[in-house]
Write a structure and sequence with these properties.
Layout lengths: L1 H9 L3 H30 L5 H5 L2 E5 L4 H12 L3 E6 L2 H14 L5 E5 L7 H11 L4 E6 L16 H29 L2 E6 L2 H4 L8 H6 L3 H13 L7 H10 L4 H11 L4 E6 L7 H7 L11 H11 L5 E2 L3 H12 L2 H16 L7
Parallel strand pairs: 1-2, 1-4, 2-3, 4-5, 5-6, 6-7
Helix pairs in contact: 4-14, 6-7
Bound molecules: NADP nicotinamide-adenine-dinucleotide phosphate.
The site of NADP nicotinamide-adenine-dinucleotide phosphate has 30 residues, from helix 4 and helix 13.
Protein name: Very-long-chain 3-oxoacyl-CoA reductase 1
C-alpha cells in the first residue's frame, strides 16, 4: 500500500508535489491551531485565582459592561473586591447587587473619575489596597470618542480624556497595586485592550482610542494617515504631543509581562472585539448580543478562564474566529473597510477637504 503511494507520488510532476506539500503543511498548521483553540477555550482548567494570586481583586470601571461582569464573576470565585469607578451611586448599587448574590464577599469602593486630575484618587486607591492581598488587578476602564471623527475634528478635551482614562489611569493604578504584589511575590494583572488596535491594522476616525490601546507610533500614524488621505491639514504639533503622551495598553502589558514574570506576577493583555455593552451601543449601535458579539457576562466568563496563561489573548472563541478571518485579508482591504465604517458612523458625507 505504502509502496504504491510512493510510486504514485514519484510519477507526479515536481510542481504538483511542491503544491501538495504546501497545501498539506498549511492544513496541518490550521488544524493544529484550531485544536489548540478548542483546548484552550473549553478544556484547559482555569487557574484558581484565590489560591494562586491572593484573596482580593481590584477592578476599574466596574459599574457597567465588562468591568461589572468581571466583578460579579470574581465574587463568585470567592474573591473580595475593590471596585473603582466614577459614580458613587452606581458603585453602591453594584456592590449591593453583588452582596445580595454573594453575601460573603467583602467589598470596598473607591470613587475615582479617571478623566480629571487623578492624583488624589490614586492616593485613595493606595490607601484602599494597604494591607489587602490584592491578587488580581483588572485594568478595565476605557473610553472612546462619542462619535467617529477625523482627528482634527476631535475637541482637545475629548482626546485628552481618552489619553487620561485609557493610559494614565491604567499606568497609575498598576503602580499603586504592583508594590504589594512584588512584596507577596504573586499577582495577576489583566489589561483590557481592544481589537481596534490589534486585530485590524487601523481604526480610522477613532485614531486616539485605537492608539491608546496599542503602541502609539503604529496605530496612531496608520489611522491618521488614512484619515489624512482625504484632507490636507497640518497637525504636526498635535501629533507630536500625542505621540509623547500615548503609551499603550498592548505594549505596556507585553513589556510588564517580561519584566515581572520573575517576581511571580503574570501580566496579560486581553483583546476583546465587540461585546454588547453601553460603549458598543454608543460607538457601533450594537444593542444586543449575537454569535459574534457576546454579552459582558459571557465575555467575562471566558476572560477569567484565561487569567494567568498567555501574555496576550482574545478570550472569546468567536472573536478569535473573526481575528483569523481578518488575518487572511490584505491590510489595504481592511483599511478601506474600517475607513468606510468610520465615515458612515461620522454621519456626515461632507468630507472636510
Ligand atoms: N464593548 C466593546 O465592544 C469593547 C471592545 C473592545 C474593548 N473594549 C474595552 O473594554 C473596556 C470596558 O468597556 P465596556 O464596553 O464595558 O464599557 P462601558 O460599558 O462603557 O463601561 C465602562 C465602565 O468604565 C466606567 N468609566 C467610564 N469613564 C470613566 C471615568 N472617567 N472614570 C471612572 N470610571 C469610568 C464606567 O462608569 P459609569 O458606569 O459611570 O459609566 C463603566 O463602569 C474598555 O477598556 C474598552 O475599551 C470594549
Amino acid at each position: 500500500m505504502l509502496s504504491t503511494c510512493i510510486q504514485h507520488l514519484k510519477s507526479q510532476p515536481l510542481w504538483i508535489l511542491i503544491l501538495s506539500s504546501l497545501g498539506f503543511l498549511s492544513l496541518y498548521k490550521h488544524t493544529f491551531s484550531l485544536l489548540k483553540l478548542v483546548f484552550i477555550t473549553f478544556l484547559r482548567p482555569p487557574k484558581n485565582l484565590k489560591e494562586n494570586y491572593g484573596s482580593c481583586a481590584l477592578i476599574t470601571g466596574s459599574t457597567d459592561g465588562i468591568g461589572k461582569a468581571f466583578a460579579f464573576q470574581l465574587a463568585q470565585k470567592g474573591l473580595n473586591l475593590i471596585l473603582v469607578s466614577r459614580n458613587s451611586q452606581k458603585l453602591r448599587s453594584v456592590s449591593s447587587e453583588i452582596q445580595a448574590q454573594y453575601p460573603h464577599t467583602k467589598i470596598k469602593v473607591v470613587v475615582l473619575d479617571f478623566s480629571g486630575d487623578i492624583t488624589e484618587g490614586i492616593r485613595v486607591v493606595e490607601e484602599a489596597v494597604e494591607g489587602v492581598e490584592v491578587g488580581v488587578l483588572v485594568n478595565n476602564v476605557g473610553v472612546s470618542y462619542p462619535t467617529a471623527r477625523f482627528f482634527h475634528e476631535v475637541e482637545e478635551e475629548v482626546w485628552r480624556r481618552v489619553v487620561r482614562v485609557n493610559l494614565e489611569g491604567t499606568t497609575r493604578v498598576t503602580r499603586a497595586v504592583l508594590k504589594g504584589m512584588i512584596e507577596r511575590k504573586r499577582g495577576a494583572i489583566v489589561n483590557v485592550g481592544s481589537g481596534a488596535a490589534i486585530v485590524v491594522p487601523s481604526h480610522p476616525l477613532y485614531a486616539v482610542y485605537a492608539a491608546s490601546k496599542a503602541y502609539a507610533p503604529l496605530s496612531l500614524s496608520l489611522s491618521l494617515s488614512l484619515s489624512l488621505s482625504f484632507i490636507t491639514w497640518n497637525m504636526k504639533e498635535k501629533t507630536n504631543t500625542l505621540k509623547a503622551n500615548t503609551l499603550y495598553v498592548d505594549q505596556f502589558s507585553r513589556s510588564l509581562h517580561v519584566e515581572y514574570k520573575h517576581f511571580g506576577i503574570h501580566v496579560q493583555c486581553q483583546v476583546p472585539l465587540y461585546v454588547s455593552t453601553k460603549m458598543a451601543s454608543k460607538l457601533a449601535s450594537i444593542e444586543k448580543s449575537s454569535f459574534f458579539i457576546p454579552t459582558p457576562e459571557n465575555y467575562a466568563q471566558a476572560a477569567i478562564r484565561r487569567i494567568g496563561y498567555e501574555a496576550r489573548c482574545t478570550p472569546y472563541m468567536t472573536h478569535s474566529i473573526q481575528w483569523f478571518f481578518a488575518s487572511l485579508l490584505p491590510e489595504s482591504i481592511l483599511d478601506s473597510w474600517r475607513l468606510s465604517i468610520g465615515l458612515s458612523r461620522r454621519g456626515k458625507i461632507d468630507i472636510p477637504y
